[in-house]
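Entry type: protein chain
Record version: 2
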Amino acid sequence: MSKVLIPIGDAAEAMDTLYPYYRVREDGFEAIVAAPERRIYPLVAHEIPPGWDITRELPSYHLASNITFSEVDPEEYSGLFLTGGRAPEYIRYDRDLIRIVRHFFERGKPVAVVCHGAEIVAAAGVIEGARMATVAKCRFDIELCGATYVNEGCVRWGNMVSGRTWHDQHLYMPVFMQMVAAESAKNAEHNTASSVRN
């Protein structure tokens, strides 16, 4: 079974995280949650209430990590989903997470980015020249790192598909799942060819 890696941390956004977690499994892939430590992480709900100019953060569900960033061998994964919330602001400093992200871009493997997940690809230095969507407040982060901000619900650029917030999941998740399926099929063909040669 092909695997998709979903990095999280404290205060990852619940809707950003849980929909892809179950969507990946629905299509027959294994969803592996990675984090700085093996423990249960509190997710949050992010919303801008009517009349507010900033995001309000509320407690939400919890999600356990299966593996730490340092334990991840990115060769084993067919896709990477970078979720939003406040977690990316902190986990983007993790050297092992940056190692993982760079692997996916160096190999051209599928990456999905939503909302504040853009802070992670920005920190990894992999988006120069990219066109991508993100939540408006992260526009500065990606433009500072050489990307072009696009205010659309689904933007495909090479091996990366991006969306603004969880409201765009119906737009970017089908594209991401097609990318993962293609990567999984390619890996299966490679493994079959290797077995025949041996």
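Comment: The CA atoms of residues 62 and 84 lie 15 Å apart.
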